[in-house]
Amino acid sequence: MRNVALLGPPGAGKGTIAARVAAELHLLHLSTGDVLRDEVARGTELGHLAQGFMERGELVPDHVVLAMVRERVEGREGVLLDGFPRTLAQAEGLAQFLPLHAVVYLAVSKDEVVRRLGNRRVCASCGAVYNLVTQPPKAGGRCDRCGEKLAQRPDDAADVVARRYEVYERDSRPLVEHYAQQGKLITVDGARSPDVVASDVIEALRP
Ligand code: AP5
Ligand code: MG
Fold it and tell me: Is residue 44 over pLDDT 70?
């Protein structure tokens, strides 16, 4: 089994694609954003620490996220990391406890991610993700799976999206080159439909 990370700007489709790839290749899908949102919702100490950073579109400090990931994946095989690592320090820290075999970079333009995030709706109850334009819920503003009301993620407000993108450019984009130099980078055009993107990623990763 192999360990893989999904890299790409906010709204590139990491969560959407990771869910499909993990199901097909039987990988453990770990989204650091999802874990942090759950900690915030449960009002834990980690949630209190993370909340302000997330609301502003800034990164949660490296040592906090590294400890959170280490606790969940150290010694495992077949992990699909979504949204981690996001800084060179996180990449170096990760290498101490989990070898990565491939890093998939979902390439999507800024205009496209801004459009996607403006139209994203999420179910706070079951975590399902929709898009008013590309993946609309069947019944108005309610979740297809559990019937709960859909909402916008607080950090999908336009000003926070702009900040998240800047932070991505500054801190996370250098990882593309970092993993290319290690010969681990697989670049996939993320601007196509989720089915096509997911099937490309699955083919690229299939043993
Ligand atoms: P996180 O939750 O990871 O946010 P992100 O990286 O900004 O990415 P998103 O989850 O917004 O987008 P996505 O790429 O998953 O796209 P999705 O599939 O939903 O992190 C949130 C915050 O947590 C960070 O800002 C930071 O504060 C903190 N954090 C998390 N990880 C951290 C770390 N490692 N270090 C420090 N801090 C960390 O799709 C988006 C929309 O597009 C949806 O509406 C979807 O339906 C639609 N869509 C998806 N794919 C397609 C497609 N192919 N075509 C058309 N529409 C599509
Ligand atoms: Mg996500």
Answer: yes
